[in-house]
Amino acid sequence: MTDIKAALRAQHIETPSWAYGNSGTRFKVFAQKGVPRDPYEKLADAAQVNAHTGVAPTVALHIPWDKVDDYAELARHARELGVGIGAINSNVFQDDDYMLGSVTHPAARVRRKATDHLLECVDIMDATGSDTLKLWFSDGINYPGQDDIRSRQDRLAESLAQVYDRLGDGQRFLLEYKLFEPAFYATDVPDWGTAYAHCVKLGPKAQVVVDTGHHAPGVNIEFIVAFLLREGKLGGFDFNSRFYADDDLMVGAADPFQLFRIMYEVVRGGGFDPATGVAFMLDQCHNIEPKIPGQIRSVMNVQEATAKALLVDRDALAAAQSEGDVLGANAVFMDAYNTDVRPLLAELREEQGLAPDPMAAYAKSGYFEKIAAERVGGEQAGWGA
Ligand code: LRH
Ligand code: MN
């Protein structure tokens, strides 16, 4: 049990700055009391998640949603709060120029503009000490014939190569794929294979990020995880869950069994070894639920799935698998999944000097009442979509 606790204690789950701001759907973005008005307040809220869970020490930024005059100052502020700046997320999906694409756009002027933004994000990595750039492209087409699918891949590859060459020592970028939305016929990075192929061509500093909400229904995501880990190309996760499309709901909320299966392949593939550099990031929107508790619950869901995955009796499983004992092997797997790990995690938190139930501890802390009272006026942070 000690190793399991050691692995859980060493777990590092990165929360997204944008989860603390207002978010919604095309129909409505509901404002909530106490929502941050700037990146400094977002970091303060993220620090609460780390304070109560003990395993969320970094925050991913999104540019320009988290644009500030002094990024080094922002990183200092984060350190004072006990957190660090994690992945820097580029944004080439909200500018009018990008209607027909960003780095894949037919016009060289627009491609230049988009690539320059990606390069600016590397400057922000330098200023904040972040070692990871996360690249998601909304680029795609809505109608057959709208543009040349192959030429768009050429343009994408050209831009990625420029960004790759700009990366410094110890820096990398993670290429994110997504099946559809906002493009509804062909997306330029639609699946893991496309992302993987571009990353292999570029080199070791380019890896793939698996956003758990970006697949067609029924896709076996843990297979993709196992494959990318085997290839050394799994850079990380954007964790969330969904019932239908890119719903960005709390990770593990819609399908805790799938999250367990994914975390088992992470355990089996050595993904918890810091040397593999797999980043466990949340990418969610708390459209109707309170945001800080939503993040705390999400971190706990990842911890629970991880604990269960670490509980799989690997020797018994390997023995049953090698004997072709189908039901035996499945039973070993399900025993771990059906184990209630909440007492173990509560015990671990107490050993870390934390309250056994982070949700209750946060509710009792009075932090929400404080920010709801303080954060009056000004413009609440959001996606600005
Ligand atoms: C795209 C995405 C991407 C982020 C955005 C907030 O759907 O998953 O990772 O840039 O959400
Ligand atoms: Mn994502």
Notes on the protein architecture:
The protein is α/β, with parallel strands linked by helices. About 45% of the residues lie in helices and about 10% in strands. It contains 14 helices and 10 strands. The strands form 2 sheets. An 8-stranded parallel beta barrel has the order 1-2-3-4-6-8-9-10, surrounded by 6 helices. Strand 8, helix 7 (about 220-230) and strand 9 form a beta-alpha-beta unit. Helix 10 (about 315-320) packs antiparallel against helix 11. It is globular and about 55 Å long. It starts with a helix and ends in an 11-residue tail after the last helix. The model has no long low-confidence stretch (mean pLDDT about 95). 6-deoxy-beta-L-fructofuranose (LRH) binds near residues 89 and 211. Manganese (II) ion binds near residues 136, 176, 211 and 283. This is L-rhamnose isomerase. GO terms for molecular function: L-rhamnose isomerase activity. InterPro entries: L-rhamnose_isomerase, Rhamnose_iso-rel, Xyl_isomerase-like_sf, Xyl_isomerase-like_TIM-brl. It comes from Nonomuraea insulae. Its EC number is 5.3.1.14.
List keywords for this structure.
binds 6-deoxy-beta-L-fructofuranose; L-rhamnose isomerase activity; binds manganese (II) ion; EC 5.3.1.14; alpha/beta; L-rhamnose isomerase; 10 strands; 8-stranded parallel beta barrel; 385 residues; 14 helices; globular; metal-binding; two-stranded antiparallel sheet
This entry's quaternary arrangement is single chain
Hetero groups: 6-deoxy-beta-L-fructofuranose, manganese (II) ion
Give the strand content: 5-15%
Proportion of helical residues: 40-55%
Radius of gyration computed on alpha carbons: 21 Å
Tertiary shape: globular
Mean of pLDDT: 97
Count of strand segments: 10
Low-confidence stretches: none
What separation lies between the terminal Cα atoms?
47 Å
The largest sheet, given as strand count, sense and whether it forms a barrel, is:
8 strands, parallel, barrel
Number of helices: 14
Q: Structural class of the secondary structure composition? A: alpha/beta
Which strands sit side by side, in order, in the main sheet? 1-2-3-4-6-8-9-10
Element string (H = helix, E = strand): HEHEHEHEEHEEHEHEHEHHHHHH
